[in-house]
Give the backbone structure.
Amino acid sequence: MDKASAPNKEHSLPCFTQSMNLKHVKLGYHYLVSHAMYLLLLPLLAAASAKFSALTADDFQLLWDKLQYNLISVVLCSALIVFLSTIYVMKSPRPVYLLDFSCYKPEEKQKSTREGYIQRAKLTGAFTEESLAFQERVIERSGLGETTYLPESIARIPANPCMSEARKEAEAVMFGAIDELLAKTRVKAKDIGILIVNCSLFNPTPSLTAMIVNHYKLRSNILSYNLGGMGCSAGLISIDLGKQLLQVHPNSYCLIISTENITLNWYLGNTRSMLLSNCLFRVGGAAILLSNRRPDRRLSKYQLLHTVRTHKGSDDRSYNCVLQSEDPNGIAGVSLSKDLMSVAGEALKTNITTLGPLVLPISEQLLFFASLVARRLVRIKKFRPYIPDFKLAFDHLCIHAGGRGVLDELEKNLRLTERHMEPSRMTLYRFGNTSSSSLWYEMAYTEAKGRMKKGNRTWQIAFGSGFKCNSAVWKALRTVEPVEEKNPWMDEIDSFPVRVG
């Protein structure tokens, strides 16, 4: 989540056994039908093939004798076949493959313990004793461990948050992730046709995309997009944008960078709702390479199956729950409303209700849909609709590591196991909240543990200001062998999972 707070008993996510809107179920089925209609041709083609394969030579001769005296029928049938084949090819969405991804791992000198962070905060002289005590309590309950990373500008003493240091942080994260990704995929920078960067709170001029184009000397006709202000869910928005662009630009590579910048967004005031981001956010970033080139299927790790985006910005309560503004002393920060957890729950409920028909087994769909219809007909408030078991649809879950409280509530309400939550909890513990890139640290954790097998399905889900909840579903095209991987977990993966107190 954008700035997920420590657990709050008064403002927990609403239980998903509350009423779910039937229109979102309809929307899910609309997505399903819209993307699957072309598959109806496959049974017809299979039946026709079976019929023709059963014909003997005499049957073919008889058929030819009949057709040669009916030229109009032959022409019409041929035209129909060509027409249907053309429609099939044109309507079939281009497959989107994920060749590989990489996550940035900062230098050892940037590591920060929980006590070390408090000591740095004291040295700034900006915080009152009450604010320091509040930050210490939040960090102790946050789920963060002792080895997260701060930017150099804040890790050093005295801190030096300025524009030049912010640029250094952005360059280190982005170029570090991209260099590793290009080395892993062996794709030349000049071959990249689409570039998307998402960073919510740091938008310099020239843009972050321009930094990358200049550094790697990318081609002049590259399609570049710089997404700002879209929060922690912007990573999946970038994936969805890349998917849409790859539908209309054949034989293309799409490079996506997901990151956040800490240097200029370290809050130096004493408003509690704005201090939470200091306690949770840490340095991180990820680079992802997508392709729609069919030969790349055998080289790719994953295929993108679905993206579902939910935006609740039309509701004022949702719009204002995460708001960047100035405190009473004129110091800029991001304020979190007491409605944040409730808003997140509503957005998640809408998203999974839409996603369900696309991914759930038919047995779960029928039970879920029947309970919704029954509840509308019976109209008994205490009647609880059936909650689908999403564990039957996915092998792995990557839930944005925004904060411990959110992860606890999702585990309870979606009835997930500790193993499902492990990648998210360990990412929060080891790297902190790295904003939109946290999903990829979680995916890397699953790979490093040797759990990603061919055919496995992974659900990525993230929250963001606005308020948004977005999902992406991936299918593994091959088994990922940890010994062949280079990711930020490999040097220490045997020490995880750990007990988070």
